[in-house]
Amino acid sequence: MGTSDVDKVIRTAKVKHVNGLEVGETVCELVLFSDRLIIRNDFTNLELSIPLSSIYLAGLASQIIDEQGFSIGGAFLGDLIAGPLGAVIGGIGAGHKKGSKNILIIRYLDDGEKQLIFRNTPFHQPSLELMARALRKRAKQNVKLK
């Protein structure tokens, strides 16, 4: 008996959670399926399932800045910098691309707007970029459907 398409893993990435979940800064695993994104952290026993249909914005911070323009992107990042993110994104300013390539942003709807922010872990930059690309593609499809 074969595995259904829904159960096939499309992409995985190890990332460091920065903001959005009640687990603090800790390494999480993102597992992308055709219909959902699973976020796992074995240390805290976290396993969150987000339907891909609820994700409306996803990508690296640098991609979002490029797409929305620097002034809008700057305001967007300013919104994100509130709280503990200042230390992560801080000082992006004119040289925003270098630091923002390491930050994955996911916004989705679940009883209101939710936002998750992750950054790459050492040696995992390629998996972060590939995960961002896959999630970004799906988020753009969702926006077109609405």
Summarize the structure.
With 146 residues, the protein is α+β, with helices and mostly antiparallel strands. 35% of the residues lie in helices and 33% in strands.
Residue-averaged pLDDT, rounded?
77
In DSSP terms (H or I, runs of 4 or more residues), the helix count works out at 5
Structural class: alpha+beta
**Residue windows where pLDDT falls under 50 for at least 5 positions:** 70-76, 81-97
Order of strands, widest sheet: 4-3-2-1-7-6-5
SS strand fraction: 25-35%
Tertiary shape: globular
> Cα distance, first to last residue?
36 Å
Helix content: 25-40%
Q: In angstroms, what is the radius of gyration?
A: 15 Å
Major sheet: 7 strands, antiparallel
Task: Write the element-wise H/E pattern from the N-terminal end onward.
Answer: EEEEEHHHHEEH
Number of strands: 7
